[in-house]
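Dissemination and training. As part of the outreach component of the grant, students in the summer workshop were shown how a complex can be specified as a set of sequence lines and then modelled as a single object. The example used during the hands-on session is reproduced here so that future cohorts can follow it. Participants entered these lines:
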Amino acid sequence: MTSQFVPTVTNMVTIVRNIIEGYGMGPIRALAQEPVQNSKDAASRGRARVEYRLHKRQSPEGTDDYMLTVTDSNTTGLRGPVHSLADIAQGSALSEGENWAAFEGMGYTKKSSEDALGSRGQGKAAYLYHSNLPSLVPNQERMMMLYDTLLPSGEYRLGVRYTNPSDAVRQPPFIGDEARSVISTRYNDEGTAIELGLDPLTQVGTRVVVPHLSQEAVDAVHSGELYQWLQRCWWRAIQTGLSIEVVDEDGSTESVSVPRWWVTEPWTRQTSGARTYENIDAGDGLKIKRIVLLYDESLSGSDAQFWGVQLLRGQQWIETLGQETLADYVPRDKRPGFRGFVEFDRGAERELRRAENPQHEHFDRRVSGVKELVAAIEDKVREFAEEQGWGAHESTRPAPEGEREAALEFLRFLSPRERSRRSAQSGAANASQLSMDLTERWECDLRLDFPDPRSVRVNWGEYIRNVSVVVSLQPASISRHATVSLELAHVDDRASQIFIGSQSVHLQSGEGIARFGDFQIITGATSPSKLQCARPGKWRFTARVEVGGVQASRVSRSMFVNEDPPERQSKPYTLSVSVENHSTGQRRINSGDTVGVQVSVTNHTTENQALQLTASLGDLLLADMTTVDTRGIPAGATPARIPGVQSRIVINPTTSPAPQQQSINLPPGRHALRADLYLNGEVVAHASRTLDIEVDPVQSQDWPPFRIEQISGSGPHPRWQFQKRNQDDWVLQYPPAYPLYRALQASPNQSGARLTGVSAFVVDVCAEGIIECSMEPLDNGDHSRMDELLNGVPAGADPERWEDYCDKMQELAALRNRPERLDEYSLLVRDCASRSLNLFVERG
Amino acid sequence: MPVKVWNRDNGTLSSVVETVRRASLRGELFRVDAEALDREIDRMLDRAVELAVVVVATESEQQAFIKRWAVGRALMESGLLQSEQLDPGEEKWLWQAIARKCRLGVRADGSSEAAWQELTPNREPDPTRLERDVFAVGLWLQEQELATAMMAFGGSRTNAREVYRRGAIRTKNLRDVLACWFEELEPSRRSILTRPGNFLPLARALATRFPGRGPGSAKRPVHYSNEELYAEVCKVLDPIANELASSDAEPVLKNP
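and obtained this result:
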């Protein structure tokens, strides 16, 4: 029979290297894992017998040369037909049981039903990687493996595979007596002679021969490293019938055994120091079959490397939850004696298989369900740690009254409830209105045209045109005079302030306009139509409306001189939801109360965009893909909020609601008002707000949006942290053991100072807490908390400084979720916190 | 309403009266009320047996499904839960009393009733789990007629639980549409897809399409008309069903 090698065009040496060097735990783990996995899959109920045997041969040069054989029995052997040269060269689909062809081929197509984990040639690569076949020509890299199999039919085959560096398989393989003859003597090919000298197989199974074994693999056999990997990977399968032996070149045999701490199967009987948790629901239909945790203080020394909780799939170790996940629960001194393993039910194993990397050593946490499974395991470790007396190292308690009062004073200062509200209809940026008396509502809007309508940047020499202030008054029937003044200043330099002018406006039909004309931006001296803005950067126009010497309204707009405005929001479109109890003003809503609901849409881009809004409360659909037309804004300008839903809803009405009102019946409890914003069928923003129906809110009021607690424990804690018990129950925790807190506690309080001692510490962490609390919903495009916080001006705060704070918060929002700009984000958080503290300290 | 909870110690039947009424008044003071409730439970369980036996199911899993549905329907018809006498917090005793009567097979007068013994699980979990896994699911299942519920879940409690545990897709209109969707399939295909292992991806896909919270959660199944919801369900389930059905037919290649 004519035989030949079928080469492929790929550089198989590189491929093999890439595959095996992708094993985070090294090539010996690959050698321990892949061959056994293949054997186990080919055995009835996984009860394969696998033998790793080292053979010493003499090289022609007289040096020691090692060869590894990995032989399995009680398996099916490499069954199935030997495929033709054409099939191997062109690739084709394989069916169940075509193991020989699958082992020979690298070019076969993958069937859609084929398990992705088994389709990358990991098994072959694990062998080839460890073969250092001598080069025939300089700088040539060669690998080789031979494989013989005895099938139940009695058929005997011997195959040969080279990588040099292309992949080549001998076709057809040696068959029958010829195969037996070669395996028991030597393999000879042009330039390559392998002294085999092995006994032909006598039991059905497969043997893979790795000639010229790498020194790394030889050392791993001698040092016991291979044994340890085999034990760690396969102990659970060994417990249920798999058998693995490692034999060195002298015939000394070691059977891989179950680690001593699992030998007694502590999950089958009460064992001191061990706990078994079974059938644990991890949510979403995923179940953990068994978690076994054990603490044995006698375990130490080299056994210590086994600490942690092994995650098994198909009785095979995949990864260990250790330091990164469990360090919080298992104290350092207990770790050497802490062991655990987890087995999953069939459904969860299926999901985990999808999450498993090709090297079988990690589950991808991004695959659905994996995080939940890990969280469920963590829960049990925490429980176990507490039972062992390790976990009782953390406790919380409400902040002491003095500190809580100081924090509340600061938070009340920032409370949106404590300020006058901006009209919901006002789309203008930073517009504000004041009620002159109970019947009058004044508003104003500053309008101007920038040189480039897509940006608020103005270069020196360019003009801003049609600067005007539109003043409006409700009720419109009142005729009044007002004075409108306009000024400009650099945001970081109050001394740069330019008074542009002042005009008297007569309001008829509720509206009047003050026109200031066009202005050129220059570096020289200010004149009637020129504004000196020598310093580049952000400048702010401020218009004030005064009636009878009292400020009735105020508005500002920014421009950037010779500088690009900062980046926009990371989310192009956002939603804002507000709910008010019109009946009582309280957050708790009782039957019969009327609530006002508003859902607004904001477009942060330069382009006009029609978006679709869906909103609901319980069974009541408030908007169903309702189109909201939004206008783009120049870069750097503050966008307008466009109302998408405005409703008055009677909750659990006892009488028929008025015609313009909607109504809904909701059982006592917490119910969510939800809104989704769509663009081209995809959700681009989501916001929600909880309504407390006939129950008290988690917070005693809706501001501050979090409670304040002290946290104590044995380990160090961050300066502050949020404990989010659910969407509406945030707790800001700070550690009284924090060094700065303790130092402040020891220092004398300054009488008369607004911030002093530990109260200052608590207010400081609240300043950062309020920022995080406002920013977090932005991750989904929910602008509600930001809008609520920044609406209006806190009582007693300097409006200009407040505006600076608002600007910085908007800049911060633009940097949210941009890992590459984390430094800037962190800096800006501190900047915003500092600004809010200054506003608080300097309030009037 | 005070609840009588039966027990059997060394073959002897006994009972205690449990109530949340004022601690100063011992439960035994309400034994007359509790006895009356016990007789109502008898009638409810008899009705459950009656409802369960009218349908002949060959598979044990289907029999269990029918019993779960029957207990729910009988409970709903009995009006026990709507009783003004049942004080808040006493439901847990009611669940335990019903489960215990089933497990022991004991009527209010102390006589035996073997027919009840398989209406609820033989193992009696804590009242919270009893409520969640047995009675709440039963009440929820009975919102549909039995045939429709059987069609929606292939007569499998496991499948029903997969939907029940995902709050956003629990609604009756979605279950009705799910039943319609299964009904349109050929029986052989339906049988493949209602195997619990295959049903799970369907439930998960529906939960992904109709999330309980977060993006995409504003419009829920209850906001759709039946026609719209059917179209959505087809959009979500058809591709998975095709994939599952085809993979079920083809052999799987094992890694050699």
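Residues 107-119, 421-436 of chain A have pLDDT under 50 and may be disordered. Students were then asked to discuss how this feature might be tested experimentally.
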